[in-house]
Amino acid sequence: MNKTRILSSLLPAFTVLTCVAQTEVITVTGSRLSDAAVSAQSVLTAEQIQQINPISTTQLLNAIPHLSLKENANGAGQSFVSIRGGESNFTLVMIDNVVVNDPTNSRGGGFDFNQINVAAIERIEVHRGSPSAIYGSDALSGVIHIITKTDSNTSVSLAAGSEDYRSGALTLTTNSDSGLSGLLSLSQSQRDASQFENYDNTQALIKVRFNDEQQSHQLMLNYSSKDSDSLAEDSGGVDFASPMLAEVRENQQLIAALQSKVLLTNDYLESLNVNVSWSEHTQDANHPGILPQLPQGVPASEIESQYEEKNIDVHVTGQFQAVQWAAGASAEDKTGTNTGFLNFGFELPVNYRLEQTDYSAFIETNVAVDQLKINLGARFENPENFASDTAVRLAASYQINQLTLFSSYSESFKLPSFFALAHPLVGNENLLPEEADSVELGIKFTPTNSVTGELVWYANDFTNLVDFDPELFTSVNRSQVKTQGVELTSSYQHDWLNLQVYLGYLDVDVVNENTQLRRRPDWSGGVNASVTLDDVTTSLILDTQAEFYDSSVPTGLRTLGGYTTIDINSLWQVNDNVSLTFTIDNLLDKSYQESIGFYGAERQLRVGITWQI
């Protein structure tokens, strides 16, 4: 929850990826089964990403309906993502089926999306709801699955824009008749708006794949780094920060994964799936501190953190008459370290090391009878130093002509972060897992192939939430938060026009506390539109947010005004090999704050060119 400023003073201030050979790579976030019951999901395809031409991954996420995103310093600072009112660390983040949440950070595992170079992304899938029964701990309110490039053409891209923005990307691909293919993607982007708003992002991606009629295998290696300077989170930004010094961060992430699928010839067994992964995230952060204009300030700090996770997941899928099923087991081995000090006029060490293993067994079934689908999932977890627990999810959908009714209920949990458990000043090894009970009811209307409408009501009950107790000066389980809301989405597709309009309402209740949660507007919405005339596609992204609460060390709790922004991009396909882009971000040059003292970028111009070979 991090509602109390003292905690801020201690900051370091399955789905198988590949399917049957010679078919498109498909994932189904929220289920391991291909024909699961309908649920609330959103997808951005490679074509849509190209049309949007985002400057960063956070800008790309802003185009996804019903996903609340705020950031500091326009890509140079931290980002905050909330699904259905949940904390940022309630969202499980995966890159190519590999979980990348880092529980050593003070946000409890919240992920900084700007450390992923947007040039490496082919597809994003968002599951709204709680699929912990599928993915395990961390997925209390949703899943964001980022799929990197797979079958892209060999190409070179260059772009430049306002405030010293420049980027470049090189993609090399090769294919053989034997089913073997490879991809190398290198990309870099830089922006130097000011001494308090600059970053340098580098990404390298290697994929080797083998497909035939009976099997598919993929080896993926992914390296990313982000060096950035920005005013510290909760400092009050350019309006209130004191001292007016940048926090300097260096982030690196390494991922290695092998994912295999073998089709089985048994009458009841369909496939054997094996996923093995290793990931490591490191961060060096030099925090200048925040002077205590209110009683609680933030000391300067120098912190180095490292998080390593090894994972193996094995499961089998099968079908018996109308019943699809998947069953398997997984094992995780996690190690987190924190080295450094807080500067109180003297250097106070805040070193810790924590290791944790987690063994899981899971099963998922899907029954399809005529127009009715029922999906049931359960996951038993036996984490080290915690009592075993089981997450469950029941979902159903029923189609009546052009109408589809769907619903789901889930019980899920999240282990406390390494930071909350092991930090030498505020850590508490006796913390209990955070828990959530979630329900959704929805209706989807498809009167024609080109028109779709969807209305969803949801409610979440989050309990045992970790918070900081200033009297005990430690982390405790005490908070309960109830959220409920409505999501309305409609879309229209035509040969030359794609249009999507969405509106969401969120109500948040912190039970028995007079507390307002930050960065959660009650109303939000947007419009995504693209028009194609001859060889030119023009896309518009409109994002609107009602007023919301935020806080900083110098100001305490404040209300920030709502805003509406418009980004526009034109893509001209000059010929089969060359395309040009012209982009205007914040077309209306709106002045707005996503966090206290952190202003959205002014009107920005960008141009780009891509050569495909």
Automatic annotation (TrEMBL):
GO molecular function terms listed in the Swiss-Prot or TrEMBL record: siderophore uptake transmembrane transporter activity
Keywords, ordered alphabetically: Cell outer membrane, Membrane, Receptor, Signal, TonB box, Transmembrane, Transmembrane beta strand, Transport
Taxonomic superkingdom: Bacteria
Classification via InterPro entries: Beta-barrel_TonB (IPR000531), Beta-barrel_TonB_sf (IPR036942), Plug_dom (IPR012910), Plug_dom_sf (IPR037066), TonB-dep_rcpt-like (IPR039426)
Signal is among the record's keywords: yes
Ranges of residues in domain TonB-dependent receptor plug: 39-143
Position of the signal peptide: 1-21
Membrane topology, from the record: Multi-pass membrane protein
SUPFAM superfamilies, A to Z: Porins
Any Gene Ontology biological process: siderophore transmembrane transport
Localization (cell): Cell outer membrane
Coiled-coil portions: none
Gene Ontology cellular component annotations, sorted alphabetically: cell outer membrane
Record family assignment: Belongs to the TonB-dependent receptor family. Hemoglobin/haptoglobin binding protein subfamily.
Protein name per the record: TonB-dependent receptor
Organism: Thalassotalea euphylliae
Origin organism lineage: Bacteria, Pseudomonadati, Pseudomonadota, Gammaproteobacteria, Alteromonadales
